[in-house]
Design brief:
The chain is α+β, with helices and mostly antiparallel strands. It folds into 3 domains: 107 residues, no CATH class; 56 residues, no CATH class; 155 residues, Histidine kinase-like ATPase, C-terminal domain (Heat Shock Protein 90). It contains 10 helices and 8 strands. Strands 2-4-5-7-6 form a 5-stranded mixed sheet. Strands 1-3-8 form a 3-stranded antiparallel sheet. The chain is elongated, with a radius of gyration of 32 Å. It starts with 6 loop residues before the first helix and ends with a helix. The model has no long low-confidence stretch (mean pLDDT 80).
Length: 356
Amino acid sequence: MLFTLNKGKLQYIVSVAIVLSVSGLCFIVKEDLNYRIVALILLLTVSVIAMLYDIFPVLLSALLSAFIWNYCFIPPIFTLDVGNAEDLLMFMSYFFVAMLNAVLTFKIRQAEKNVRDREEKEKTITLYNTLLNSLSHELRTPIATILGTVDTLKDNNDKLDKEQQFDLLNDIGIASIRLNRQVENILNMSRLESGTLKPKLDWCDMEELVNGIIRKADVLNGHKISFTPTANLPLFKFDIGFTEQILLNLIHNAVLYTPKQSVVMVEVAPLLDDCIITVSDNGNGFPQQQLSMVFDKFYRLPNTKSGGSGLGLSIVKGFTEAQNGTVTLENIPTGGARFIIRIPAEMSYLNNLKNE
């Protein structure tokens, strides 16, 4: 018969089982153990239980250990009688210490939990405020651009020539893409934190995927995106959507935070059982002391220009780890930064795939 136990019942069962097991082991070797040593062993057992479980299972284990110590170890054994006043005092002391130990340990755990809850609440409030601050600027800016440009087109449609209209429509398109990216990043981060994202494996032509992403890239500011496919690049089996988001965010991050005319280089290569994706640039790189923090949510380097919410690299890390991969960042000695994505993936060449 299959059944489930709730957390409370399981704690009672495990607490009793631990006390009985330790008592049984002590009883087996009781000829070599003084019953006073057994008392210390049982007290240690109750202390360990108190560090793990709630107060009532711990109190039960303290009562049970006191009873077992009296019945099975204090002479005369197999009776609740205590042979002399010294043993009676020791038993009462054991009972008091065991109960006090259970209560105090539980109180300490509760205090630690309260501190953690307070810290978590403060952290949540900080993230919430950061998100609001980010949204107030990063979403308001493209929305304001769209509304302002639409008003200009409506009010001055007869006065604008074709080229001016095209420029205004292009501004709307750029702002819409930026707005969509910010909303998409927020939704992706929410899905990552909820744990609902599960990779869907499918065969992917990385040459086609990267070229498609480069065509989607907006506001290049004179940047050049370079991708030279590796000869005989195989197909990789992983989540195409996750990998596309990884590359989109890395390329956008490089374009946004490197000087104009910088070159962003994308490389893809197989290595053993992994797909290695490298995105590098010839910009200014990252401050060495900041390398470990760039993947934190909402983290942005000091004195960086506006245009990002601090979510892009967090999403890169989240989507990579969702595929059991790793992401590393390093500065290039000659200048610039290099992101290396390593994703475990089955590989197959097109001819082999057609024959499967």
